[in-house]
Amino acid sequence: MSSARDDDAVQDGVGEPDAFERLWTPHRIVYIKGENKPESSDEVDCPFCRIPQMDDAEGLIVHRGEVAYAVLNLYPYNAGHLLICPFRHVADYTDLTADETAEIAELTKQAMRTVRAVTRPHGFNLGINQGAVAGAGIAAHLHQHVVPRWGGDSNFLPVVGHTKTMPQLLGDTREMLAAAWPGEPEN
């Protein structure tokens, strides 16, 4: 008896088989369609304004400071990809207060130290994309990316297959980084 999984099994009407394997990632369609992007630049629609109102685990917050916080990127480039966001809804780096600028810089340093201690990356990409044309997915609320990098993490899969494999669930990554963050652990 033959099953649909046998190598010799052919599904009628699907055309000629090719040499490609398929890695199905249907969860990515939300990001591709922009379903979580705010409809406007107002604070009401801003995910970076809503996240601090959530429980840390639900919002993927790793650490809360006085005027800024560290949160996992919902659509990470690599495992441990953090965003450092001011609590205040502000779009432009030049509009940050001195306290916001200082704490974003300090949280960036803490993020790098914490990720290094936990996952041993070979390097980091740090950056702020100012404006949609510069690549900011949510341009209305400033956020700095802290992306851990490892040798060989940019293999053929994202380039050819437009797919990124993630070795750990976001909730597990959040727990691990929050526990290792310097100071008192957050809830």
Automatic annotation (TrEMBL):
GO terms for molecular function: catalytic activity; nucleotide binding. Signal peptide: none annotated. InterPro entries: AP-4-A_phosphorylase, FHIT, HIT-like, HIT-like_sf. Coiled coil: none annotated. The active site is at H143 (tele-amp-histidine intermediate). Substrate binds at N73, H145. Residues 47-156 form the HIT domain. It comes from the Bacteria. A motif (Histidine triad motif) lies at residues 141-145. Keywords: Nucleotide-binding. This is HIT domain-containing protein. The lineage of its organism: Bacteria, Bacillati, Actinomycetota, Actinomycetes, Propionibacteriales.
